[in-house]
Design goal:
Blueprint (H helix, E strand, L loop, with lengths): L1 H6 L3 H12 L6 H4 L3 H30 L18 E4 L3 H12 L4 E5 L5 H9 L3 E3 L5 H5 L8 E4 L4 H14 L4 E5 L4 H9 L4 E3 L1 H13 L6 E5 L2 E5 L5 E3 L10
Parallel strand pairs: 1-2, 1-4, 2-3, 4-5, 5-6
Antiparallel strand pairs: 7-8, 8-9
Helix pairs in contact: 2-4
């Protein structure tokens, strides 16, 4: 070793001296006069501590400065309480997450496909996004469901939404759950077995709104309540959608 030749030290003493210089540790008479094996162990421990410190610092700086899907500070911080978990970042999920944030509700989005177009859009909007399977118990434990207001399963797959709701209720039985689903046999059979939360058919709501506009209504929004779709008019009035009476020709 070069240090051993320059400083006229034994190899172990030279290794120990160089390590102390690298980690900026002062002299320790007890170790300096100790056995060689103890100096080697001390040197290895100091080098390991130096390496771990460097890795931790690099990771922390990267998390603070890099634009990731979640962050340690800012709007993309993962909420830990009073939040709503939105599983599925399709058009419905993204709009729901943005609306909740406009209402001042902390929101956390979950998407299984990291390459989905809306994942990048959510990132640009400053929404925290976690990549993973919404029905995974390992992932759900990380979402602080016990302190969440609700979970909305709004993927495009009805069966997947049911699986997500069942998994979430299995971990937090009093959690309010909202499902995007229709009137198919799967959801009806699931409802017959146990309560899976609030189920809304977004296709029916959207289709009814489009039908109302096509028939001359000025409605801007619509919502479903007790199997009836209500229209929200520009002046704030709310009225149920009524199909026009069928008329037949002579």
């Amino acid at each position: 070793m070069a240090a051993a030749l320059v400083l006229d030290l034994a190899s172990v003493d030279a290794f120990y001296a160089v390590t102390k210089v690298m980690v900026t540790v002062g002299p320790n008479p007890a170790i300096d006069a100790g056995p060689d094996w103890f100096k080697i162990v001390s040197s290895v421990a100091m080098l390991a501590a130096l390496a771990l410190t460097a890795v931790f610092t690099a990771g922390l700086v990267n998390r603070l400065l890099d634009r990731r899907l979640t962050a340690l500070v800012g709007s993309r911080v993962v909420p830990r309480k009073d939040h709503v978990v939105v599983v599925g970042l399709g058009q419905v999920g993204l709009r729901l997450a943005l609306l909740l944030r406009e209402l001042g509700v902390p929101v956390l989005a979950v998407e299984s496909n990291p390459n989905r177009y809306n994942v990048a859009r959510a990132k640009n909007y400053g929404l925290p996004v976690v990549i993973g399977q919404g029905a995974s118990h390992f992932l759900l434990r990380r979402l602080s469901l016990g302190r969440a207001q609700a979970l909305a399963a709004v993927t495009s797959q009805e069966v997947e939404n049911i699986s997500i709701a069942v998994a979430a209720l299995g971990m937090q039985e009093d959690l309010r759950t909202i499902l995007r689903a229709g009137r198919g046999e799967v959801i009806n059979e699931t409802r017959a077995l146990f309560s899976v939360g609030v189920v809304q058919d977004v296709h029916r709501i959207g289709g009814t709104l489009l039908a109302a506009v096509a028939l001359g209504s000025d409605a801007m929004e619509a919502f479903l309540h007790q199997q009836t779709v209500y229209l929200i008019l520009p002046d704030g009035r709310i009225e149920p959608f009524a199909r026009p009476d069928a008329t037949g020709g002579d």
